[in-house]
Description:
Layout: E1 2-3, E2 18-21, E3 27-32, E4 38-44, H1 58-66, H2 77-84, E5 88-93, E6 98-104, H3 109-121, H4 127-145, H5 148-160, H6 174-179, H7 182-192, E7 198-204, H8 208-224, E8 251-257, E9 264-272, H9 282-292, H10 298-306, E10 312-319, E11 324-332, H11 337-353, H12 358-374, H13 379-393, H14 397-408, H15 411-421, E12 427-433
Parallel strand pairs: 3-7, 8-12
Antiparallel strand pairs: 1-2, 2-3, 4-6, 4-7, 5-6, 9-11, 9-12, 10-11
Helix pairs in contact: 3-8, 9-12, 9-15, 11-15, 12-14
Amino acid sequence: MTVAIADDPLQSALAVPTVRRLENGLTIIAQQTPVDAVNLSLWFRVGSAIESDTINGMAHFLEHMIFKGTARLSPGEFERRIEARGGVTNAATSQDYTHFYLTSAPQDFAALAPLQIELVLNPRLAKADFARERSVVLEEILRAHDNPRRRTFSRSMAVAFEKLPYRRPVLGTTDVVESFTAQQMRDFHQYWYQPERITAVAVGNLPVEQLIQTITQGFEQALARRQLSPDSRNPATQVRRSAPEPPFQKIERHTYVDASLQQARLVLSWRVPGLAEVERTDVLDVLASILARGRLSRLVQDLREQQQLVTSIAASNMSYWQQGVFTIAANLPTKNIEKVELAIIQHLQQLQATPVTVTELKRVQTQVANRYVFGSESPSDLAGLYGYYQTLTGQLHHALIYPAIIQRLTPQDIQSAAQTYLSPRAYGALQIFPDRA
């Protein structure tokens, strides 16, 4: 079934791709571009957020194991065949998705795409490989613990979310990962890596129908070779979806000491809508840019350039599926931490009391929209954009009209969002000091 994306009065800066859903449930998105490369991205709606506490880290561990080959591809053969033709391949696991991709020359796509499809659908998941790769994953967890930036992020997520699984690490923890069995992973793969849970995106310099045909045939062949276990247990029964957490009701402070730091860290966070309410997230992107994205933003100008109270400061609107978190984070001398927090709150109060000027809004709208368009120029950029939105929202419409939505926002929209979501009296406050002095 081919899905036609309806015309919208908002003008899109992006071309409209073709979306086709096959009888087996697989969603294919394809678009021809003039860039002389083709990217195939396979998106799975499975990440750390769907895991129970007892299997936290399984999605990421499975991503590693996928590359250990299949009955038809020995370990390392996939990468060798990709590199022999000058292609590149990689993967990533997040809270809400797992993503595998390869980029090749157009003339090599028909030969290489089926290899990637075979790899993700029919991995060996052998016990010997499982034991060896576990040590690699455990080492990655240790490196994450040794990274001050990742430690700060992990602590900020634990502040932002009290119950939702976004508070947990994508990698899992050492004790949980050490408890995994190969059979648990086979069960997990068999349940989640099904065609109806996959979005396959192909973007590049080949005709759309040729891209779709290559993907369709690749899946048909890989599925025909698939051997499913009749004894597999359903890991999804361990997963419980939770409602979004309510906004903070007061200022909730969390303080740590991290002797590896040279400066203090301050992270303020607010719970905001996620991609389940995607239409409510756009104005928060603009708010982040007004506050602290770019040298001309308010907090950068005031606290870094003029008062020189911080070494760096940035705002971010992170949109997970169930819920988002809006953060303002600064690196700064310990002595300035209270003064900087007060200054940030005063800026929020100003945004709530006085609408931004049309001039400032236009500048930021151009910045946000252009950043989006400039990040959608290559086949891999577009494939990532389409796969992300289709996987997490179930449709592409918002991805195509995002720049126009941003341009349509008014000063009153910005003021209303600041009043609704960024309370100056209720938020999470994370303070990390380099010492106890």
